[in-house]
Amino acid sequence: MARSPRIIASIVAVALIVGAAAFAVVWRPAIAAIERPSPASFDPAVIKRGRELAALGNCNSCHTRQGGQDFAGGLPVPTPFGVIYSSNITPDPETGIGQWSEAAFARAMMTGVDREGRHLYPTFPYDHFTNVTDEDDRALYAFLMTRPPVHAPARPNELMFPLDQRPVIAGWKLLFLRGETFRPDPAKSAEWNHGAYLVDGLAHCGSCHTPRNALGAERASAQFAGGEADNWRAYALNDRAHAPVSWNAESLYAYLRNGWHPDHGTARGPMAEVVSNLSTVSDRDVRAIAIYMADISGAPKPESDRGAVLAQVEPASAQADAAGAAIYAAACASCHESGRPLPYGGVNLALSTAVTSPDPRNLANTVLSGVAAVAGERSPIMPGFADSMTDAQVTSLLNYLRARFSKEQPWTGVEKTVADARRSQTALLQSSVGPRNAPADPSQRDQP
Ligand code: HEC
Ligand code: HEC
Ligand code: HEC
After folding, report:
1. Cis preceding-peptide flag for 37 (omega within 30 of 0)
2. Cα gap 353→347, rounded to integer Å
3. Of 106, 257, 264, 441, which residue is least crowded by CB atoms under 10 Å?
4. How remote is the CA of residue 124 from the centroid of ligand 1, in Å?
């Protein structure tokens, strides 16, 4: 009996320690509100660099919704846990970041905490932005603070309990957020290091191209092994890549800069937005990204040059799926075997990663939705077949393409993938933003 007060005291002590630790993990102070700085107070050269950095970071892809104003937020970003709406990052004092100091902005980029001290969901890819230098954060801040302010209140997220509680995010950060700043590798070139800094940081390539674990964090041990975005597969880019012709620095540069390469075809879906942003940044940045990614993808594989890949295509008559063969001959071959150069002609499908990929999602998306024209530009166009083909017909076609144009095993579950693709493409057409297609000639694209 005499010991129970001591036991109670120690329980209280433990509870206090646990409570204090939890408080330390969760609690972040507010940073004082400021008057919106005058746009004239920012150096135009810094603003200009900020515009490029914002393009490298795809800030517009997530912070601008279809028909909405630039950076005013409200885009629904689907996650496996529910829908998160992006914030208004225009300098509107009431509904945007107009009252944020540069310190508040840099803290959000580096630790995912808003000005008032609330934890932000990692859908905002700050797990990559942690490595952004102070100088680059300053330029991004200058760019955003000089945009026209837009009054656009936040939309409430649609998340399941307990994930709708922001303190939970602190636990996620404790497990997965590495606040590492970028450390250059002295053994590599300056260009390689600049590429590594951009790819792992602002450009957050791994946020789509690296697989995630059950808690939605990127798997560090499987960097660039292939991930997903908006029901598109973001192909593997490491030495396990499925691209029929191996990527190299030159082809990566051309694809990232222009949106297509004759040995690989065009960027579609979420990658088209990435490329359309990259078409507006400095050549030096894109070249550095290409050099770093070429190193990630490793040495070219034997049998992976264009000639060898095209030589292995089976003759049409050798194929079993007669229904698929007939659809291909009637609806696809005229463009894809025309010999018209890219990007206006279709690539020989033996060169397409959509056909060699471990799942047929991107191929189904492309057949159903086609390749849309970019408004006001000469760009590749392919009709969508959603209205003219049934799921069973698309399934036959996909099975045929896999057998005829690749040496891989047949896909399983194709019919379900096609049905899912039809649903998600319809939903995306209603909610998404911007061109789903890259410009054929980036010089035609307006500079903001
Ligand atoms: C993949 C989508 C995505 C990209 C890319 C993205 N963001 Fe966001 N961002 C979001 C979402 C979603 C939120 C809201 C998170 C929340 O409510 O917890 C957000 C929140 C923010 C916030 C906090 C605003 C506030 O009022 O709390 C800032 C600042 C921000 N983003 C800046 C940027 C910048 C700068 C870039 C480009 C360098 C960028 N974001 C790129 C999705 C994105
Ligand atoms: C928002 C998600 C997203 C981001 C961010 C992203 N990608 Fe992609 N990427 C994709 C998707 C999806 C595809 C497949 C596109 C297709 O089917 O045409 C793709 C395709 C590619 C391909 C073509 C691979 C092949 O074999 O055809 C390359 C190369 C590539 N991405 C490089 C990059 C690099 C480098 C970055 C960063 C600068 C990046 N991606 C950022 C989603 C993304
Ligand atoms: C009017 C011409 C046209 C028709 C018809 C057409 N395509 Fe395309 N397709 C294109 C163009 C142009 C592109 C963009 C260049 C490229 O990537 O091949 C494209 C892109 C593609 C791609 C992406 C290749 C890559 O990885 O970049 C696939 C896959 C594809 N088409 C499959 C098909 C299939 C299957 C059919 C028949 C159901 C079809 N296309 C019918 C013109 C056409």
Report:
1. no
2. 11
3. 441
4. 4
Q: What is the pLDDT of residue 425?
A: 75
Question: In the predicted model, what is the mean pLDDT of residues 190-197?
Answer: 98
Tell me the per-residue pLDDT of 129-163, one tens digit each, with 9 for 90 and over: 999 999 999 999 999 999 999 999 999 999 999 99
Does one domain contain both 211 and 352? yes
Q: Is 54 in the pocket of ligand 1 (CB under 6 A)?
A: yes
Rounded CA separation 381/346 (Å): 9
In a domain, 237, yes or no: yes
Q: What does the block give as tokens for 309?
A: 């890949």
**Could you tell which of 124, 141, 276, 432 is best to mutate to test the pocket of ligand 1, judged by most ligand atoms within 8 Å of the CB?**
124
Which ligand is closest in space to the CA of residue 402?
3
Q: How far apart are CA 351 and CA 261, in angstroms?
A: 10
Residue 435: predicted pLDDT: 39
For the chain, the domain total comes to: 2
b/e burial code for range 242-263 (CB count within 10 A of at least 16 → b): bbbbbbebebbbbbbbbbbbbb
Q: What is the mean pLDDT of the chain?
A: 91
Region of poorest pLDDT, from 122-131, 188-197, 244-253, 294-303: 294-303
Ligand 3, residues 232, 247, 255, 335: which to mutate, most atoms within 8 A of Cβ?
A: 335
For residue 289 and ligand 2, the question of a CB distance below 6 A is answered with yes
Of all protein residues, whose CA lies closest to atom 18 belonging to ligand 1?
Answer: 120
CA 363 to ligand 3: nearest atom: 29
Torsion of CA 347, 239, 286, 42, to 10 degrees: 130
Do residues 108 and 241 both lie within one domain?
no
Q: Does the beta carbon of 271 sit less than 6 angstroms from any atom of ligand 2?
A: yes
More confident of the two residues 235 and 14: 235
Tell me what pLDDT residue 297 has: 95
Tell whether ligand 1 has an atom less than 6 A from the beta carbon of residue 352.
no
Q: Are residues 196 and 170 in the same domain?
A: no
Query: How many Å lie between the centroid of ligand 3 and the Cα of residue 199?
Result: 29
Whether residue 335 is found in the same domain as residue 233: yes
Note whether 84 and 232 are same-domain residues: no
Do 313 and 254 fall into the same domain? yes
pLDDT digits (tens, 9 = 90+) for 29-83: 999 999 999 999 999 999 999 999 999 999 999 999 988 999 999 999 988 889 9
Residue 442 tokens read as: 């980036």
SS3 67: coil
> Which structural domain range is residue 104 located in?
21-176
Both 389 and 339 in one domain: the answer is: yes
